[in-house]
């Protein structure tokens, strides 16, 4: 019984480091307050729609489970008949049919078990897979605002660990709970009906087992959480020591770091030992009580046989049946804990699925866009923030024109770049393209007009081709080549497997400049009318910067562009500069104009060493 | 990896890819590690064996006593000779139960303790070893893999120790003990009951083979799915901006379906294995009932023996089911042990000296004596380098990326050892210095400016653990970080976000400088990374630099030339050679490579 759960939990195959305990440890929990029990149960109930395609499967599973339980109860009763009938009367002829019946029932029980498990495989895995597909689809639609709040580790644990828990509940927990209760009730009834003192004895012995297992589950949960939390802390230390290895080496702080790790590892050791002791005590009691009951059953039963109240066969059958009860009873606490866990998981899953995608597609499709981008009195306020990030922002970028946006850290530059492709929505004012509010446009058509290259060139662990054709899965070889050439990224053809080379985290590592140029090529593909670039030059050395700059110059020649710039060299790519300060644009003009007229601009862009008050050496 | 998908592209496989041979769960080095880990627990394990034999013996004796109760306890009662025999049998059962319960608890605690001790030992070894291994190792072996070695792999072994072993040891002992007892109880019936054993063995062997494959497939498919999921979520900006959702959904649905199929396969295996065991068990019970009944009708066996057989056979088949879990656990633990032993076998290529020299306070004079260095054979990075840097000098290294600047710096910090020649600090070969002495004398501030979890003060104090608060504040003040730290919500006690996430790049750099300042080394190496800063940030850092440089030998790797003006000496590196050497003013006047770079830089400032 318990073994079954272990197998299903491992079948999930979720890497342990990513389990809820570690993945969410230390992270923020952006959870809304909910009524725990009721809504959690409701969440689980709502998942039932995913079971609809498997109604026939479910009927088979439940029938098989119930019949199987019945067979398991009947088999010992046949033993009774054998002992009391043929054996007692030395009647060989009567033995054969009973034996064959036992055989038939035994085969049937095994077959029913097979039928149940095999059918379950299809339905519960189908359920899990369908929910996961839906979660992924939904998560892709949720806006940046949502993803800012949620670490990907948290989302991952919901789509893996939590779904496995739900799958286990539907596949095993619910079924076992019902059959266990049924088995306990029926067997107790049989015992009580056959010889009530024995039945009573067994019933009484069940009570402490249930009590103990409920108590154990509660304490075990607490102990496990503690171990999990501490393992999470330990994992954080490991992560730090792995990522910060250069710093540790540079300062020769190996011993210091090791001491910290050692202390935490000892804590894990200590609380794991507490858990071991708890389990040891519980399983001792769990084995002791049924065996002691067996001794008493024998004492009482044998005396009853001696006084002729009970037949020998009944005694044999009752001892077997009494033993059969041990697991269903002992697993009750575990199964109830599982229900609780499944409800929590369902709640966590529904929390994701219930988040409405706040950025929804409009209906208009831009025919023949010219790329006239306007920000009209734009305001962006993050939920819960006192001050808006952007306010009363006006900017007009005419078709073909390039505007550089310059501003201090935290002035709202990156937020500004997210508005045109509607990665975020404005909370006031509007953004228009060729006079159309971007919110009226269909998302695909809008995002075909506006292409973006981010400060960090996000590359996925896929082939170069897949990375470049991100938004255009159907792009032809010629188009890809043209984009790579425009972005000065033809180095991709010289990689070991050409455009089929896997890059990204799990593939070949590229230099910063190479990554930036691929990101540019990606933005160029499909000939967008508007290009939004978040300073892509920042992490490059001088030589590479020149290459990328050249690429940019070509790319920006034919499109409307917004370039977030940190340095003078980037600003020079633009036709005019907008100075962003405290969330609004205060000055617009050419680089020279602003340099001459606006002290704050000079402060931001002029690196003249003479401005610094020299420290005497 | 299984069938390649076009979108994933092609890549060289990891060097810790799972071993191809499925059957060899433990290779030699894993066995060595295992023996090593177990050695300190020899006595504990011996005790464990004794305890578990007693425990199982006590458990096995119970059905036998039930038989005795039925066969010898009841007749006296029927003959009205009293319940003495029955009572003594029941007493014996209770005694056996208590012995079993007590030894069982002892076993669980003892095996738990040994397991946890081994885990702690393993954690310490692997962590310590990772810390000892040189940077060149860490360069190849990404941090992600270090993390999974120390988390999921260690936990795979912990799983085996916690759940797996207990089950399998019990199963094996129960099977053997029961078999023996059945034969003792009644040879004929015993032999009949044991007839299915070969079938059991065949079924288990089939299951082990298949589930090993299925399990691996599950791990592979889930890993692919997770990578895709995490990348989609962390890169959601790009996904949405480039209308990637459709294609992503296609890919994800494919991976999800692969994972489902892999899972389905392992579930189906269990769906065959478990009922299979049940079938064999039930058929055996029916046959025993039939044959036993036959014998009993002829009074060849007693009813007690029959009852004992029925009880034993239940106990016989139940633990078999546990075997189905055990292989998965064993499989992943075996793979984990393989990887961990692989790590522990790596030899640090920057070795500690056998007899370290501990010099008096370092002054900071550096000398490269005919140094040659290459990462890969035949591709020299530094062909042959002679260079002397007097104590207290500030030197800027200038050159294109790949010219060898960083390598030169790393040799001074002894992140690598030269292939030929020597690097000397105050006349002592770096290889003769103990680690402590070396790190006190030479500190390298890298581009990463890694911030550890904890407070701002903790992070500065990393330069000198145990430094009093005044010194921490003094260091921060010296580099110009005091102002912004004081403005933080909790000042020096503000917790930095994970990986310093809540600090801007400029501030992180200032904290790294404060850390270095507090460490107060004689030689400071700065892999200057002002390129990721905006102009005001860069200005802050420049100002801080001047304070830090005073009174110590400093080597700055200059990516941008703004730093060069504070250097007393500029070395232009090209293809691993020093092509220009002089003060900035001299070099600009010479109209060489540096002068060209300098002009380009002035232009870029516009």
Automatic annotation (TrEMBL), chain B:
Q: Which Pfam families match?
A: ABC_membrane, ABC_tran
Q: How does it sit in the membrane?
A: Multi-pass membrane protein
Where exactly are the transmembrane stretches of this chain?
A: 45-66, 86-103, 167-185, 191-207, 269-294
| Record GO terms (molecular function) | ATP binding
Q: Which Gene3D superfamilies does this one have?
A: ABC transporter type 1, transmembrane domain, P-loop containing nucleotide triphosphate hydrolases
Q: Which UniProt keywords apply?
A: ATP-binding, Membrane, Nucleotide-binding, Transmembrane, Transmembrane helix
Q: Which SMART domains match?
A: AAA
Q: In its UniProt entry, what is this protein called?
A: ABC transporter ATP-binding protein
């Amino acid at each position: 019984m318990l073994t079954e759960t272990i197998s299903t939990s491992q079948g999930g195959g979720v890497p342990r480091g990513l389990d809820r305990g570690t993945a969410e440890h230390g992270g923020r929990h952006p959870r809304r307050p909910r009524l725990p029990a009721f809504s959690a149960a409701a969440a689980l109930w709502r998942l039932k729609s995913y079971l609809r395609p498997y109604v026939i499967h479910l009927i088979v599973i439940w029938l098989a489970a119930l019949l199987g339980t019945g067979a398991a109860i009947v088999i010992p009763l046949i033993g009774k008949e054998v002992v009391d009938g043929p054996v007692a009367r030395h009647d060989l002829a009567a033995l054969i049919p009973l034996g064959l019946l036992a055989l038939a029932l035994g085969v049937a029980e095994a077959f029913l078990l097979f039928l149940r498990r095999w059918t379950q495989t299809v339905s519960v895995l189908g359920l899990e897979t369908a929910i996961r597909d839906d979660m992924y689809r939904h998560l892709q639609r949720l806006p940046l605002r949502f993803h800012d709040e949620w670490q990907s580790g948290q989302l991952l644990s919901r789509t893996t660990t939590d779904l496995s828990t739900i799958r286990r509940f539907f596949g095993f927990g619910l079924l076992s709970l019902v059959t266990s209760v049924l088995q306990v009730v029926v067997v107790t009834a049989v015992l009580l009906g056959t010889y009530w003192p024995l039945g009573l004895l067994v019933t009484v012995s069940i009570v402490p087992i249930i009590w103990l297992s409920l108590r154990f589950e509660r304490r075990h949960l607490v102990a496990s959480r503690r171990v999990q939390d501490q393992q999470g802390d330990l994992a954080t230390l490991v992560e730090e020591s792995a990522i910060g290895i250069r710093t540790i080496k540079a300062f020769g702080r190996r011993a210091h770091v090791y001491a910290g790790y050692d202390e935490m590892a000892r804590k894990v050791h200590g609380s794991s030992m507490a858990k071991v002791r708890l389990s040891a005590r519980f399983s001792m009691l769990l084995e002791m009580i049924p065996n002691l009951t067996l001794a008493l059953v024998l004492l009482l039963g044998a005396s009853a046989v001696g006084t002729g109240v009970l037949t020998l066969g009944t005694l044999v059958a009752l001892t077997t049946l009494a033993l059969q009860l041990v697991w269903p009873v002992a697993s009750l606490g575990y199964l109830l804990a599982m229900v609780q866990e499944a409800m929590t998981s369902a709640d966590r899953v529904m929390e994701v699925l219930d988040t409405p995608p706040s950025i929804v597609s409009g209906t208009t499709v831009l025919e023949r866009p010219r790329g006239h981008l306007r920000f009209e009195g734009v305001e962006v306020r993050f939920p819960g923030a006192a001050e808006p990030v952007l306010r009363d922002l006006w900017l007009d970028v005419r078709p073909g024109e390039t505007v550089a946006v310059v501003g201090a850290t935290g002035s709202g530059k990156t937020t500004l770049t997210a508005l045109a492709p509607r990665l975020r929505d404005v909370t006031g004012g509007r953004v228009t393209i060729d006079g159309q509010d971007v919110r009226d446009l269909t998302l695909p058509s809008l995002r075909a007009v506006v292409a973006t290259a981010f400060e960090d060139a996000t590359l996925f662990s896929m082939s170069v081709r897949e990375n470049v054709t991100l938004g255009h899965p159907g792009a032809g070889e010629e188009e890809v080549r043209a984009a790579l050439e425009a972005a000065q990224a033809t180095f991709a053809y010289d990689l070991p497997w050409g455009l089929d080379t896997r890059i990204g985290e799990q593939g070949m590592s590229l230099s910063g400049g190479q990554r930036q140029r691929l990101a540019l090529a990606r933005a160029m593909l499909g000939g967008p009318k508007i290009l939004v670039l978040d300073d892509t030059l920042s992490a490059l050395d001088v030589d590479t910067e020149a290459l990328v700059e050249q690429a940019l110059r070509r790319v920006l020649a034919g499109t409307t562009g917004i370039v977030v710039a940190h340095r003078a060299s980037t600003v020079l790519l633009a036709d005019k500069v907008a100075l962003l300060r405290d969330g609004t644009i205060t000055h617009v003009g050419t680089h020279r104009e602003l340099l001459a007229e606006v002290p704050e601009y000079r402060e931001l862009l002029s690196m003249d060493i003479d401005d610094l008050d020299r420290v005497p050496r | 990896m299984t069938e390649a998908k076009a979108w994933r592209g092609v890549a060289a496989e990891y060097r810790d890819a799972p071993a191809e041979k499925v059957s060899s769960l433990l290779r030699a080095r894993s066995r060595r590690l295992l023996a090593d880990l177990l050695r300190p627990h020899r006595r504990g394990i011996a005790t464990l064996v004794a305890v578990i034999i007693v425990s199982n013996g006590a458990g096995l004796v119970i059905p036998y006593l039930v038989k005795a109760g039925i066969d010898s306890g009841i007749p006296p009662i029927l003959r009205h000779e009293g319940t003495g025999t029955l009572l003594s049998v029941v007493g014996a059962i209770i005694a056996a139960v208590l012995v079993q319960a007590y030894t069982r608890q002892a076993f669980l605690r003892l095996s738990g303790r040994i397991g946890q001790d081994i885990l702690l030992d393993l954690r310490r070894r692997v962590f310590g070893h990772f810390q000892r291994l040189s940077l060149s190792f860490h360069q190849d072996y990404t941090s992600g893999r270090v993390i999974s070695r120390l988390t999921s792999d260690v936990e795979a072994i912990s799983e085996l120790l916690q759940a797996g072993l207990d089950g399998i040891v019990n199963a094996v002992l129960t099977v053997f003990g029961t078999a023996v007892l059945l034969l003792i109880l009644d040879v004929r019936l015993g032999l009949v009951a044991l007839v299915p054993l070969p079938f059991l063995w065949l079924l288990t062997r089939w299951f082990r083979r298949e589930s090993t494959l299925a399990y691996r497939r599950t791990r592979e498919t889930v890993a692919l799915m997770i990578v895709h999921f995490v990348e989609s979520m962390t890169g959601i900006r790009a996904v949405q901006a480039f209308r990637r959702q459709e294609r992503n959904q296609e890919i994800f649905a494919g991976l999800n379906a692969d994972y489902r199929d892999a899972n389905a396969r392992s579930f189906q295996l269990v769906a065959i294995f478990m009922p299979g065991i049940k079938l064999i068990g039930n058929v055996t019970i029916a046959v025993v009932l039939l044959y036993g009944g036959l014998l009993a009708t002829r009074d060849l066996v007693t009813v007690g023996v029959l009852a004992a057989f029925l009880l034993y056979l239940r106990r016989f088949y139940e633990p078999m089911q546990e075997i189905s879990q055990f292989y998965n656990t064993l499989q992943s633990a075996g793979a984990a042990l393989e990887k961990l032993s692989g790590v522990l076998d790596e030899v640090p290529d920057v070795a500690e000296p056998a007899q370290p020299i501990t010099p008096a306070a370092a002054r900071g004079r550096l000398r490269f004596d005919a140094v040659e260095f290459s990462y890969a054979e035949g591709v020299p990075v530094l062909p042959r380098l002679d260079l002397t840097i007097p104590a207290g000098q500030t030197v800027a290294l200038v050159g294109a990326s790949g010219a060898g600047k960083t390598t030169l710096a790393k040799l001074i910090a002894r992140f690598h050892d030269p292939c030929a020649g020597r690097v000397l600090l105050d006349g002592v070969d770096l290889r003769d210095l103990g680690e402590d002495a070396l790190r006190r004398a030479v500190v390298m501030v890298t581009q990463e400016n890694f911030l550890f979890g904890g407070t701002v003060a903790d992070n500065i104090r990393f330069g000198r653990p145990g430094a009093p608060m005044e010194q921490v504040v003094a260091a921060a003040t010296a580099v110009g970080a005091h102002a912004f730290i004081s403005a933080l919500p909790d000042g020096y006690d503000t917790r930095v976000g994970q990986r310093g996430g809540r600090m801007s790049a400029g501030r992180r750099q200032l904290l790294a400088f404060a850390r270095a300042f507090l460490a107060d080394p004689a030689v400071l190496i700065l892999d200057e990374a002002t390129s990721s800063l905006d102009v005001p940030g860069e200005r802050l850092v420049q100002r801080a630099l001047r304070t830090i440089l005073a009174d110590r030998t400093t080597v700055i790797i200059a990516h941008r030339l703004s730093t060069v003006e504070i250097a007393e000496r500029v070395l232009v590196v090209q293809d691993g050679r020093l092509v220009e050497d002089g003060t900035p003013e001299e070099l600009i006047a010479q109209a060489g490579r540096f002068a060209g770079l300098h002009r380009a830089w002035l232009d870029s400032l516009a």
